[in-house]
Structures are given as structure tokens and as C-alpha cells.
Amino acid sequence: MVASAERPAGHHGLQVRMYASTASGSVRWRLLGGNNRELGRGVLEYPDADACRADVLRILNDAPFLDAAIVRADRSRWAWRLRRDGVDVVTAGHAFHRRSQCEEALARFVRVAHLAPINTPVAVLAQRRRVVSSVLPPPPSGSVEVTG
After folding, report:
1. 8 Å CB contact between 15 and 32
2. pTM of the full predicted structure?
């Protein structure tokens, strides 16, 4: 488990970034690869950075043991999610046109997530003019396809 801002050997640039929309707002997180592309994002919101950091460490270390699902994001795209105790905790950062690409992205997230350092400061993001919806629709009851 890596909890400092140091980069682990062999995974240059891999990092967890915590962010909030205001300095006193709830905290969320996302896992970024070395090229700053989002590999996955947390679904839950936390009251502060400490609570976020503690749960992120648990999620990233438990990733191989969480329930994985590959689901349709819409008619032509796929997304993945990880669930803990029936609750979504991580989702794909974006949808994929091919199911195989989505499966590969999920496998990569699970394989490298525990190696990511967590950046200590919480980034405060500027408010956007439009609200961007989640990549995934809410899970339909009884139709989630569980893989792995």
C-alpha cells in the first residue's frame, strides 16, 4: 500500500487525485495514469480529505476482490464498475466503443490501483457552467452483468 506522494517504481505518473468543487465541499477522487488519462473514478462523496483517503486506500487494495461488472453505458458503448457490498464504489472514467477495450481497462485498473500514491492536497475545481452526467446510468435492477 502506497500512501505518500512518491511515485512507485515502474508506474511513472500513476496517482490518485482528490478533488472538490469548493474549498469546504465534499471530496471525491479519481485514478490517473502517467499520461493524465483517467483510469477510474470514485462514485462516493466524502465529507473531508481524511475520510476520502482512508476509503480510497481500502478500495484500491480491495479492488481485486470487489464485484466487477461490465455494463452498457448506452446503445453502442460499454463501461465498467466495481461494487462493495452491493454499492458502486468505482466506475470507468469514460465509456468504451468495444467491450474488449472496456474489459482491458477494468483489468488494468484492478492490476495497478493498489500501486497509486494519493496526492495529499485536495484540488478545488472551478465550477463548470454545465453539469456533466455520469458515464453510467444507474444500475438496472436484476440486469447487471457480473464478470470475474
Report:
1. yes
2. 0.76
Chain position carrying cell 490518485: 16
- Of 57, 14, 46, 60, the closest CA to residue 33 belongs to 14
**What's the length of the chain?**
148
User: For the segment 85-100, what is each residue's pLDDT rounded down to a tens digit?
Assistant: 999 999 999 999 999 9
Distances (CA, A) of 3 to 47, 55, 140: 19, 12, 35
Is residue 25 predicted with pLDDT exceeding 90?
no
Nearest to 6 by CA among 122, 120, 123: 120
Domains and CATH numbers, the chain: 15-127 (2.30.29.80)
The one-letter amino acid at 12: H
What are 90's strand-pairing partners?
Answer: 42, 82
